[in-house]
Protein 1
Amino acid sequence: MDYTPHTSQDLETMLTRVGAKNLRDLFGDLPQDLIFPDLDLPAPLTETEMMRHLRELAAKNSSAATSFLGGGLRAHYVPAAVVPLAARAEFISAYTPYQPEASQGLLQAIFEYQTMISELTGLPVSNASLYDGSTALAEGVLLALRETGRNKVLVSQGVHPEYRKVLKTYLDAIGAQLEEIGLEAGKTPTTQVSTEVGAVVGANPNFLGALENLAPLAEAAHASGALFVAVVDALSLAVLKTPGSYGADIAVGEGQPLGNAMAFGGPHFGLMAVKENLVRQLPGRLVSETTDVDGKRGYILTLQAREQYIRRGKAKSNITTNAQLTALMGAVYLAALGSQGLKEVAARSVVNAHQLAKRLTTIPGVRQITPRPYFCEFVLELPKNPSQVRSELAKRGIHAAVPLPSEYGHNLALFAATEVHTERDLAGLEAALREVLA
Amino acid sequence: MIAEKKEVRPESPLIFEKSLPGRRGVRPPAVADVDLAELLGAENLRPEPPELPEVDELTLVRHYTGLSRRQLGIDVTFYPLGSCTMKYNPKVHEAAVALFADLHPYQAPETAQGALQLMYELQHDLSGITGMDATTLQPAAGAHGELTGILSIRAYHHSRGQHAQRRLVLVPDSAHGSNPATASMAGYAVKEIPSGPDGEVDLEALKRELGPHVAAIMLTNPNTLGLFERKIRQIAEAAHAVGAQMYYDGANLNAIMGVARPGDMGFDVVHLNLHKTFTVPHGGGGPGSGPVGVKKHLELFLPSPQVVRDGETYALDYDRPQSIGQVKSFYGNFGALVRAYAYIRMLGQEGIQKSAALAVLNANYLKELLKEQGYRIPFDRICMHEFVAQPPEGFKTVDIAKGLLELGFHPPTVYFPLIVKEALMVEPTETETKETLQTFAAAMGEILAKGKEWLEGAPYTTPVRRLDELQANRRPKLRWEKG
């Protein structure tokens, strides 16, 4: 089944009008031996059949809606109002708001989003979103290198390992150097920053879940003329010190905890906020308030000279399509909860994580690796292979224990708790893990 | 008159301006008295909470519903934005995505077999549609796919010891801006190739630039004039003769989706915009998805991980030592993949080829209708999925766009491609009826008839009228401030 409205009468009328005998005629400019090839696709389905097929595929998955999996994405609750509002037909079916008179809805929503991200990060300027946390980090570092004219990056091992991989891909592309600062006892030591370094990157909380005081690292970066990039957990900023307050020039992070379904890893959105002096280096869309010819307040895409469709080869980034709809979900989420609600989500996640850690570390052979204080994720050393443990737990209906890459040590697994978990969930995981490790 | 205008165009307060301290919306599960300073360390806490809106749920609902009514989308009106493929986004895709919402990328692979199977089959289907040997689903958008594709080419040259010599990427002057921007991000110098008088790449000019220093040619075919590059085989041959790779920008694939395959034309790499060709909603500027297909000799370099099948089991393969690495965390914008998969399953080969053909028919039909209304067509031959028009002498394209807004249509892409003055780039897509095309053409005529003075003042009754862009550029105001 397709979505074309043409009747056979339409076809006849239209073909006649354009002077073609049949549809094949329209492809006369193409190499004729190549057209209408066999595509090796299954037979077409009706809507009913397709949904049944997808339900069968979906039945081969097991839901992680109350899982204890972490690592950038977590099982937070998405309030019922978020998707119906953000995905209203007018928003979901719009293109980038190039025509502001027809796009005030989205433009105002983005302006409000920029304000919310600025409030969370304590930095004055937020862009309209990037693809995700990992690419936001890469773009943030590229920004720092452009600004400083330098070619080397120092990144803490506390930054999500996949983010570091993505960063490496982007830096390899331009021939910039990446050097890591190894964690010591679960935290980033303050290191010497040489004058070749343009960007220093730390995460708070770090990948192990631990809170870090990144101020000394930011100071060391600034002392040598480098910029400091902080990777943040968006939810944690309800209660934790802002990156702006500990000296970050650029804050980046993953938006999923703010009202986005986990969706097997995407789409979500990447957030980026910067100091005022970096605004003209920012990648991505940016919305400004302005006035119309009647003096009425309105909103418009601004500083577009940074972008590819104006600057082509000299643009700040090639980014075009970003993550507007998922960022809008983030904005609706933040507005739905308000600062008190967000704080309660954060607090309950923190409390649940601490109770969970307390329970799980009573199991023989289990040791907590993440130092205190930590947010809502933590790492445990297990007496058994974490991949096997994760599978054994899954057989018991519980998703938990993300195996950590070996760079962090042997038999380590990451656990997370959120506001969705109840006392019973925590006890259930404890009992299951006890059984699996027995 | 003025009072009437105000009624048509009411002010739209920010959600921050509707906020009242103490108002609550959604309430999360209760949390017992908790001392965050004890758990997190007082020195780690922010002294002041972030200032977020404090509204009740109904105010929230009315706010965003109200904003949506100040917004045009395909679901509201005809939206013939050239090179953006604003086709209908089937509603069933949203139901399809919801089936996969609660999967975590790090859950045990044996508990996500359905999701992995979907990805595996989509890799296969997209390879089939593009005529490629392997496809990665990881890139998050078209430009991201471009970067992935160009880096794969770079890794290929590297593996042959030719990276140091191949420092240049060629793009036609009609190319999308993302092409040169991508080549720059991948560390390449860029050279633009002029178009010939027929609007196609000037083959001789291209040959003069080709040599062992060229890494790749990036091409959109049909090009941004909506014309099929008829010399595509000679271009590919000339490129391959000097060891350069052919990159296909899939932004315009809708014209030839399943009708002709980039792989068969001699392209080595292709990126797709699932949010254009494969009906993933644009969402006001994403999220999209930009899978990349490559020929066999480039497969090793695709990002890690790829979805592989072992008997009846699907798995993520990270063992890819020559891979360019990862370009995004996890496995791509999976939600977009579900929509594209559903689309391909429903259309099958027949529906896919028919959709492309009708996209081309709609474009050609609309082109004829606009000619009749007095619009000029600088390259007037059978076009593909889109065409470029110019207003009659003396009219400005920006005014045409604003006039259309007044009549409730979204305008075409304006002032692009750069090689045509006062360009209007029109892409109707296959999902529009003949009547819609006729109504739009009539509106295009009507605004000309209203005359220049009316056009220069348009729009009149939209939520706002023409905005001061200069002010926004000189003194950008990028967030709300209290007071």
Note: Confidence is low (pLDDT under 50) at residues 1-7 of chain B.
Protein 2
Amino acid sequence: MIEVRGLTKRYRDRSVVDNLSFRVGPGAVTGFLGPNGSGKTTTARVILGLTEPSSGTATIGGRRYRDLRHPLREIGALIDPGGVNPNRTAVEHLRWLAAGSRLHSRRAEEVLGLVGLAGAAGRKVSGFSLGMRQRLGIAAALIGDPPVLVLDEPINGLDPEGICWLRTFTQALAAEGRTVFLSSHLMSEMAMTATELIVIGRGRLIAAESVTAFTERADSSVRVRSPQLDLLEVALAGAATSMWRVDDALEVAGIGIERVGAIARNLGVQLHELSPQRASLEDAFMRLTADASEYLPQPAA
Amino acid sequence: MIDSLAMEWQKLRPLHKTSRMVALAITMAVVVSAIVAAAMASNGAQMSLSDRRGFDSVGTSLQGINAAVLVVAAFGALSVTREYATGMIRTTFLTQPGRLRVLTAKLGIHAAVAGVAAACACLAAFAVGQALLNSAGLSVGWGNSHLAAALGGGVIYLVLVCLWGAALGALLRSSSSAITWLASLLVVAPVIVQILPQHVIDLFGRWLPSQIGQQAISSSPNAHSFSAWIGLTVLAGYVAVTLVAGAWRMARTDP
């Protein structure tokens, strides 16, 4: 369980994270979503004790990272594919992590097997592709068999097969009852991997709910087709918040599908289509973070 | 603390760079000692009896530490700066969140390795130096009463310089600036000081690390220098001040 309370991080006069509070519970993959520059990495770094917050706290199972005696046994982390001396071999890198966590050096070989790098154990990290470095980073996160995992942008640099592997892998870890906190700016991937979401923009919390609730909350609409569409449009105008024509159909927002059906029946109009239009996670995200995006292209003056 | 030490040892162990630096320090010490001793031996014939009596055979054989000192300093500095350069420091702090514990373990392990390397360098340099001086009848052999103090002084000098390097590395976080500072303090400063008027050198020269190192291995005290142990205490003071600043930065500034 990760708990962030009233977290604020200011660099001079700029707030990167602004009074952020959320909880990440066990047994699920929780996505940490936000545009680039929204404060995801800073938040992850504060949780991991690498950045001192201006105010607020971040705890893992009720304790601050710096108070953990052997942190890698409590929380595994991937913050960047770096963090490795490239002159070392993969297994050498993991061995010193094991030594520092008072784990048997055998764990180094075990976790390399878990992430599919057993064959590259004796190779220098300098010869690794970005995808292999990500896998090594995930191996490092798993070395202490921790109940909590924080993975910052883990799919960066992974090939399609690697992305698929990571998805099933993280879901399996969550199914074992672990807390998996996964940050990304790629919504489509998150929609497939995560079941819970923390969404931030400009360092502020935008949403903390399940993926289903999040997509439902984003305005969904109802699509109607009818030979007497003009008549229906006039009748719906009073009830809907907005309407727009798409080819020969009308999309209506802010009104339930049952109401649309009832209004059509009362008017006696014939319907060719009456269907709910569900917004994708991507649409919902874009809509909710539109004004929270830090670096939007500015129109030329 | 044991796991912090184990971690630092495990980091150091597989690196070929470590063994290469240790080998380099020993080689430099032996080669330079050999050159100095050979030069002295060839002059031996022209030396007067009083010159021979006052000749510092032990100190001459240990001149090689002046060459090894920069390697040892760089070894100390790189122990910290290389982690900042590769980003490995973040992984280190994820594994061991106690900044000062990590720094202490790092200093301990590196000082131990530097100590072993320095002892090998001093013994080898002495053996080679004495062999060369023997031809001119200037050797004193292993039974010399001053030998233990000179060897000990040389080793302590090199270990302190290694710690100084690590402290500067923690303070500056950059390999190039840490090594530039160390080269300036250890090698360039003594050269620059030489162009100053003699009475100024007599007054301030004793504070130079190189002068302190020279006294640590010398058996002939110099009126314008600190004695060996006072000099090493002064050097330890430089190390302590730099270390406090380095530890403060390591603990306070995010990696």
Note: The longest helix of chain B spans residues 99-134.
